[in-house]
Amino acid sequence: MTFEQIQEELKQKKYHPVYFLHGEEAYFIDVISDYLEHHVLSDGEKSFNQTILYGKEADHMTVTDVARRYPMMAPYQVVLVKEAQEMKSLKDLQGYIEKPAETTILVICHKHGKYNLNSGFGKALKEKAVIFESKGLYDNQVPDWIRNYLRQYKLGIKPAAADLIAEYLGTELSKVANELDKMAINLASGTEITEQHVEQHIGISKDYNIFELQKALGQRDALKTTRIVQYFADNPKKNPTVVVISSLYGFFSKIYAFHFAKNLPEAELLRTLQLRSAWFLKDYREAAKNYTLPKAAQIITLLKEYDLKSKGVHYNATGKAEGELLKELAWKILHV
Question: Which of 25, 170, 217, 223 could form a disulfide with 134 if both were Cys (CB 3.0 to 4.6 A apart)?
Fold first, then answer.
């Protein structure tokens, strides 16, 4: 089942005897298990009918014994097995899975990796359990996820602000959701979140960030580029050189691709460049005017070289000032 299908069933109070939640992305697993933990039973019912076990401490016999109990003055009992990836005898739950108790809701949370279902245990799960694989998002999917997440607070967000949050917080959705929750508390319903809101509530600068650096380089604005790179050098933990170079590689790769695709219809051009809206196209159009195809190719080669240097390959950073490598790279890009 999909995440949305499971959520819809839970809201309708349609429960299943076994849920097996597994995969790379912990966030979706936590949302489902937290809902089952907090919304199936009343506070009074939980005392006798809810048990939380941890894979490192429990074995299959303990889980089975607890799951076979009958609920006391409640329609169900809820048994949550957290960190199930740590349970050495997890596969030995096959016997219970094949014949689960109808009055128990067993929730198995197997995080940080997809479970191989090609086994007797996996076959039993496929037949008797609700299985959900929690897959991580790609970088370019996070801004849309942010927009959808904020709808629960009746908040909108500008594309640049969503991109800024996604770029700096990455694909770890629990971390992103936590920052969005904190920001939402301070904003009125109906607000459209801007880069100024992001700077104020999350602490990501609206003027000194990777998108402003890309824009400055794309415009060949040496003064603005120098200011941003110096800010990055002064705040290396917020702006690691390796991450900055990776982002610039993506930017100039799109400029390179733009030269081949610039005559395509806009919708097809957006797909080719993997851009979500025409709002972003103006920066690439302008940058393509300043960097011809050969220059864009030359910069990509340069970025590959400096990516290796930033990781210590053919480069000794001993005795060199923080950010020196990035300053050198920016100067070379501007003078290609």
Answer: 25
Q: Distances from the Cα of 22 to the Cαs of 15, 45, 54, 113, 119, in angstroms?
A: 18, 28, 15, 7, 15
CA distance 78 to 86: 20
Nearest to 197 by CA among 162, 228, 149: 162
**pTM of the full structure:** 0.73
Cα(9)–Cα(15) distance, integer angstroms: 7
* pLDDT tens digits for range 85-119: 999 999 999 999 999 999 999 999 999 999 999 99
Distances (CA, A) of 306 to 170, 243, 260, 271: 22, 12, 25, 29
| CATH 3.40.50.300 placement within the chain | 3-134
Give the C-alpha separation, 157 to 143, whole Å.
10
Instruction: State the DSSP H helix or E strand holding residue 130, giving kind and residue range, or none if neither.
Output: strand 130-134
Place of tokens 């733009």: 258
What's the pLDDT tens digit per position in 113-165? 999 999 999 999 999 999 999 999 988 899 999 999 999 999 999 988 998 89
The CATH number for 139-201, chosen from 1.10.8.60, 3.20.20.70, 3.30.160.390, 1.20.1250.20, is: 1.10.8.60
- Residue 312 backbone class (left: φ over 0; alpha: ψ -120 to 50; beta: rest): left
262-271: long-range contacts (C-beta < 8 A, 24 or more apart)? 262/288
In angstroms, the Cα distances linking 149 to 2, 42, 157, 168, 294 are: 17, 27, 11, 17, 41
Q: Is it true that domain 210-334 has CATH number 2.40.30.170?
A: no
Are the CB atoms for 83 and 56 separated by under 8 Å? yes
User: 57-61, 271-275, 289-293, 306-310 — which is least confidently predicted?
Assistant: 271-275
Length of the chain: 336
DSSP element (H, E) containing 79: strand 77-82
13 HSE (CA, 13 A, CB side): 5
